[in-house]
Specification:
Elements lengths: L1 E2 L5 E3 L4 E4 L3 E5 L5 E4 L7 E4 L3 E10 L2 E2 L14 E4 L4 E9 L2 E2 L6 E4 L4
Parallel strand pairs: 1-4, 2-5, 3-6, 4-7, 5-7, 6-9, 7-10, 8-11, 9-12
Length: 113
């Protein structure tokens, strides 16, 4: 589990990848934290059965635009879940996120029950 204090803004230059039978929880509270892809990166790539829980987070300027297949870059502006476990979120927003194919904010494919 990762807790990000409310009001914090984190900028990403590359994505966090979770692969395997595990659970990744990223949370904030109150006003929430901001995760910024700087129009150059998705922020989370979830696969291989990894489950993801997001709470009180604001995703901004995520970008999935490079590459030519579902596994890398063209889907999911902020979050790409491909062959992942369960994906859940509470009090999460997406602003200014885009993908060159599917899922401007989030793209979930062949994941969960």
């Amino acid at each position: 589990s990762v807790f990000i204090p409310p009001g914090v803004r984190l900028a990403f230059s590359s994505n966090v990848e979770c692969n395997g039978d595990m659970h990744l929880s990223v949370r904030s509270s109150g006003e929430g934290a901001t995760l910024d892809g700087k129009k150059s990166s998705i922020m989370f790539y979830i696969r291989g059965g990894c489950s993801l829980y997001l709470e009180a987070l604001h995703f901004v300027d995520g970008r999935g635009q490079y590459g030519n297949n579902i596994l890398h870059g063209v889907n999911g502006g902020a979050v790409l879940a491909f062959g992942a476990g369960d994906v859940a979120m509470r009090d999460v927003s997406f602003t200014g996120c885009e993908a060159s194919q599917n899922g401007g904010g989030m793209y979930v494919y062949n994941s969960g029950d």
